[in-house]
Amino acid sequence: MVKEHQIIAGNFELAGRASSDLKRYLKSLNSYPRPFISRVCSASYEAEINVVIHSVGGYMTYEINDNQIELDFYDDGPGILDIEQAMLKGFSTANQIAHINGFGAGMGLNNMYELSNKLTIHSSHRGTHIKMFFEVGERDA
Ligand SMILES: Nc1ncnc2c1ncn2[C@@H]1O[C@H](COP(=O)(O)OP(=O)(O)O)[C@@H](O)[C@H]1O
Ligand SMILES: [Mg+2]
Predict the structure, then answer these.
(1) pTM for this model (two decimals)
(2) Ligand 1 contact via 116 beta carbon (within 6 Å)
(3) Which terminal Cβ of the chain has fewer Cβ within 10 Å, N or C?
(4) End-to-end CA distance of the chain, in Å?
């Protein structure tokens, strides 16, 4: 089953909505441990906020299969200039508006890497695609 959720750039009112909808849905299934749901939705939140504050907008999709979840975030640019640098703890190009809204600590990509079982990033000036894969495991007990 695949579901899609739009993410609007610069909209701090709606920022996080896709991830909280996902959280509500996962809880309603009654088939995932709470720590697993937290892990998935924290990673989702970081990726969603990045689309809000760093891109011109995009969407997320999620696919749920038994004990596995795949999240995909797509946006339409401007892309990540240097992915290795972007992954560094504390690195951020967030602007003042993002900072005023409490974002831009430069930990998001790192958190996504730690929280997911697999993270892949594809990016060019035409857009960024973040794919995260989660599997229920020992850390979710
Ligand atoms: N979807 C995106 N589009 C463009 N740049 C991005 C995107 N996601 C992340 N980045 C770049 O990677 C940097 C690090 O991201 P992150 O670790 O989430 O920190 P933060 O969002 O706090 O800046 C961002 O500051 C930005 O330069
Ligand atoms: Mg971020």
Answers:
(1) 0.98
(2) no
(3) N
(4) 25
